[in-house]
Amino acid sequence: MRTICFYFQVHQPLRIKPYRFFDIGDDHYYWDDYSNKSIIRKVAQKCYLPMNALLLDLIHMHQGRFKVAFSISGVCLDQFEAFAPDVLESFKKLVATGHVEILSETDAHALCSLKSKDEFKRMVGRHTEKIKRHFSGYTPKVFRNTELIYSDKIGGMVAEMGYEGILTEGAKHILGWKSPNFVYQNAIEPNLKILLKNFQLSDDIAFRFSNKTWADYPLTTEKFVTWLNAVPKEQEVINLFMDYETFGEHQWAETGIFEFMKALPSAVFRYTDFNFSTPSEVVKNGTPVAKINVPTPISWADEERDLTAWLGNDLQNEAFSKLYEMESRVKNIEDEEIQRDWNYLQTSDHFYYMCTKFFSDGHVHSYFSHYDTPYDAFINYMNVLSDFILRVKMKENELAEAEE
Amino acid sequence: MKVLMFGWEFPPHISGGLGTACYGLVKGLNHHNQEVIFVVPKLWGDEEPLADFVNASDVVIDYRERKFKKIWKNLTYLEVSSFLVPYLGPEEFKKYTDFTIHDRTDVDESVFSNKFEFSGKYGKDLMKEVSRYALVAAQIAKSKEHDVIHAHDWLAYPAGIAAKEISGKPLIAHIHATEFDRSGESVNKPVYDIERAGMHAADHVVAVSHLTRKIVIDKYGVHPDKVSVLHNAVLDASIIHSDTRKHVPEKIVTFLGRITFQKGPEYFVEAAKKVIDRDPNVRFVMAGNGDLLNRMVERVAELGMGTKFHFTGFLKGKDVDDMYAISDVYVMPSVSEPFGIAPLEAVRHNTPVIISKQSGVAEVLVNAIKVDFWDVDAMADAIFGLLHYESISKMFKELGSEELKKLKWEHVAAKLVKVYEKTIKQ
User: Fold this and answer.
1) What are B185-236's pLDDT values in tens digits?
2) pLDDT class for A404, splitting at 50, 70, 90?
3) Which of A371-375, B115-119, B335-339, B396-400 bottoms out in mean pLDDT, i.e. has the lowest?
4) pTM reported for the whole predicted model
5) How far apart, in whole angstroms, are the C-alpha atoms of residue B35 and residue B21?
6) Of A23, A24, A382, the CB nearest to B306
7) CA nearest A316 in B: which residue?
């Protein structure tokens, strides 16, 4: 079996509105409905709707031989439900073909796997319920963690939850001389199979496609199949993992990205011995070649492939630790709005906005942030968190009074 | 008596405390029936008619006057091409320097034209405007009769000196802030030189506090006999009863001002940590903007008090009043503050204040706790005390309003008139 496995990440955070100190204790609604809605609508028009239509055509055209997988965060599904039911419908149509796999993840696209096993399990459970509800009882079998964050320990938890496979980054410092183009096993639970992103070929599409200073520009399907054929014969699986927004949003329609994807399956079938598989098919059919050791967490972000985009500087650490100090207290409160906000406040993007890594040389991750500086992001988040803490305290007092 | 006064700004178009102080003084002099000719680089037309206002932008210079040549000569040194931007916030400074780097003009002949449009700001052409302002001053001194000349802060000193050159009347140099207050020990030499020249050319120097008087004597070498102290006052001493209520159950301790070295924000942060460790039911607020803001945010995160210490950014208008109104304690930990009017605003809102001993206002405000800016333990003790021992706060609130009533510009103006009279006699 030689196969290509496409997985697309579909995620939009629920952005926080400008929330001032004066709002603390007064305004308990944190979310920027206007910008969240307009961003979902914009990306729907540029990416989700046209690309879903294109994939549906390809699946029909190749009679199911072309297949892909999605991971759609719960926070994104909620926004589709509210702002873009047409997008949700088009995903349902894709899943209904039987050739599209949906992966499991944390409901809020959160970092809780790094902090609390309890919360991690709860959040994954919530996501599974959401997927079931939207996709007529569909149950995900393979797991992918926020930003492909993975460690031996996280793999252990995922195996314990009954998953057979997990996706992560084929980080160089983990693989060493090994190739990402095989199926591997978790170091603790050998039953958990690991699919590794081929970052070279994935990023050729996701990041370099329209880069005119790239030696291989422009990328054509001819070039791409040549590279596929250059992969040594014994290597079985090419995992192409990327943000779904690559199509039409990061790479605009004018770059030819849609035409490229439209032509790719035919070119693969005609000129290579590869077919397409979903992650669960790869997990089922692939034979693991070795265990892989990942003692400290990796991710798919930045050159370092570590966690420093979300955690590490003082701002991020403070926000993260203050948030999770609330975990045990929030658990006991039966209040829909508090539970909703607790969920959405955990979204990894809030911490990403506080990243100062590239701030000093002026090269902020500004494309993905609506804040002027990481400091603004921190101040706004902490104001909201302060109000959230007050609300929890109020609820606790109410409970205590009721008990008396 | 007729006073020829040179300022740089006048309400309502002001960017700092200088304009407010000038307004108070003119109003006070008015009260004592003194005539004031007030010159500013740019008039907007909506100033309160308290004086005979002269718009420097309207003055046409008659270059046939021989004495002007001498003044030009003295002014050439002002045509410096350095980034001289005192009083400027960091953002403005950046804008200014960016602009100057890309669009700089080292010598501009327009200074010596017949008429010149001033911006009246603290911007790119500040030095050019200062020197042009002096030429205008000479022209005015020639055409307008007066008994004494009064110049406010260094921007107006060359004007004061030039006017004195023409009319021969005595010059009063008023010090609202020195270069040492603005820049610490890294003073701008050209600005210092102008300040020094102004103080030495003046027949008498007026400082806004004893603290400032000491700097004038120690750092500028002015003879002690030549320097008097005239503390600032408040325009309105009434107590403000605000309807604004806070929405958080905790008590609020506030820092409100520019977040710069001069204002000592880091001592406030360190004191906050000490208080929160003892009493978690307190929130600290740092309101304002400045070049140390990001460093303060980082320090607050590092100290792990991110949900108890808040930043509001720059506040204006009603937000400022609201901030004072919901505060339980106001702290001004300035490292160097010639006067510092903000604590008096806090008193007007019935908010107890803690001020640094290194501020001029500490000399007039009795009912306040005074600490050394660097003594964060004392500051934390004071904050804790005001929050928990109601009697002190209560006493401060009651006595504070009485104290404000004594700080009137009429009183200041009365003293100023005496200074004028004494100087003229000499």
Assistant:
1) 788 888 899 999 999 999 999 999 999 999 999 999 999 999 999 999 998 8
2) confident
3) B115-119
4) 0.86
5) 17
6) A382
7) B301
Task: Say if B295 is an interface residue toward chain A (CB within 8 Å).
Answer: no
Q: What does the pLDDT look like over A93-152, one tens digit per residue? A: 999 999 999 999 999 999 999 999 999 999 999 999 999 999 999 999 999 999 999 999
The whole-chain average pLDDT of chain A stands at 95
Q: How far apart are CA B11 and CA B53, in angstroms?
A: 12
* Residue numbers of A annotated as active site: 147
Instruction: Give the model's confidence band at A360: pLDDT under 50 very low, under 70 low, under 90 confident, else very high.
Output: low
Model ipTM? 0.86
CATH superfamily assigned to domain B2-233+409-425: Glycogen Phosphorylase B; (3.40.50.2000)
Q: Give chain B's length.
A: 426
Interface contact B246-A379, CB threshold 8 A = no
Output the pLDDT for position B237: 86
Q: How many CB pairs under 8 A join A and B?
A: 62
**Which residue in B247, B302, B306 is closest to A24 by CB distance?**
B247
Which residues in A180-259 belong to E strands, given as ranges? 183-186, 193-197, 237-243, 247-248, 251-252
Q: Is B292 left (phi over 0), alpha (psi -120 to 50) or beta?
A: alpha
Q: Chain A: give the shortest CA distance to residue B248, in Å.
A: 5
Task: Return the CATH number of the domain spanning residue range B251-406.
Answer: 3.40.50.2000
Based on the number of CB atoms within 10 Å of its own CB, is A397 exposed (0-12), middle (13-18) or buried (19 or more)? exposed
| Closest CB to A21 among B300, B301, B312 | B312
Partners of A379 on chain B (C-beta within 8 Å) are 297, 310-311, 313
Greater confidence (A270 vs B65) lies with: A270
- Provide DSSP, A134-186: HTTT----EEE-GGG-B-HHHHHHHHHTT-SEEEEE--HHHHTT--SSSEEEE
Q: For chain B, what is the largest distance between any 2 Cα atoms, rounded to a whole number of angstroms?
A: 73
Q: Other C-beta atoms within 10 Å of B347: how many?
A: 29
Residues of A within 8 A of B296 (CB-CB) are: none
Return the pLDDT at A116.
Answer: 96
Query: Hey, where are the domains in chain B?
Result: 2-233+409-425, 251-406
**Identical topology for domains B2-233+409-425 and B251-406:** yes
Largest pairwise CA distance in chain A: 75
